[in-house]
Amino acid sequence: MEITINVILLALLTLTALSLAFTKDLFASVMLMGVYSLLSASFFVLMDAVDVAFTEAAVGAGISTILMLTVLAMAGRFENRALHHPRIALFVVIGTGIMLVFGTFDMPAFGDVNAPVQTHVAPHYIQQSGAEIDIPNIVTSVLASYRGFDTFGEVVVVFTAVIGVLALLEMKSEEVQNSVAPAPMYQHKILRIVGKILIPPIMLFALYVQFHGEYGPGGGFQAGVIFSAAIILHAILFGVETTAKAISLPFVKVLAALGVLIYGSVGIVAMLNGGRFLEYNALVENDITGQHVGIIVIELGVGITVATAMMVIFLTFARRVGKTNGENA
């Protein structure tokens, strides 16, 4: 049965990819990419990579789709023929595909127990994380503790993306006052009522995912995306300006930096206590307690940065859409 499901999912992925290659409608392309992300998330679930599936569904099919649709509102639904060079794109894709296939020749067989990934650090994580970290979810142990420095770099990358978007699209105060970002779904009363019902549970679920990542799928990245999705849903249903009255955009920008500072501060405190950067064992006398405290705090920083980053990026794009529509009118 599992093989049958894998074959069906692979066929759907292939069909979706081919449809993406031949469609000329950018809106259809965005929808197909969302479908591709959901199919990929299903694949990850079958591979028991639930945390990765969670992230793929939330980021790939959720936030990314919304952001690309917002960009389409500014750029238009169809490609500019003068700037479209399909042969160059086809050459790049084929060349990249050939190199990827060539690279697989030196890879061990899928599932090989003697593969480096199975004999290097994975046995230590699986066998020793219970005693060293004392967290049921090994994925959280790896991401937040064993490779915490790498995860810190990812959070910094997210914050850097916010800085880049603001540098490119941030409007002056007078432009913000003159722009009226649209509320595409405001005229649909049923959607607004359903949105009011769903937004609080979505936020509550985000908090559950945030603080339950040690025991099940979840953590700061997934929780941050889910929480920001609730805010973005509010902006779509009731308008950006209405949402801005509930959350201050300047304050949200400060929170984006604060999340990174919270994460980095844990490493600084560990160093001040005689340990190495992000060595949670140095936070308190008991090593296990130090691991738990460190992971909870850094996951909180991740959640804050990711949530606020998604909000800032969307609201910045949405306000730019409002300004563009105003100029066109």
UniProtKB/TrEMBL annotation:
Location relative to the cell: Cell membrane
Protein name: Cation:proton antiporter
MrpA C-terminal/MbhD domain segment(s): 12-73
Domain annotation Na+/H+ antiporter MnhB subunit-related protein: ranges: 190-311
Membrane topology: Multi-pass membrane protein
Species, as recorded: Kangiella profundi
Keyword Transmembrane among record annotations: yes
Signal sequence range: none
Any one GO cellular component localisation term in the record: plasma membrane
Keywords: Cell membrane, Membrane, Transmembrane, Transmembrane helix
Chief location: membrane
Family stated for the protein in its record: Belongs to the CPA3 antiporters (TC 2.A.63) subunit B family.
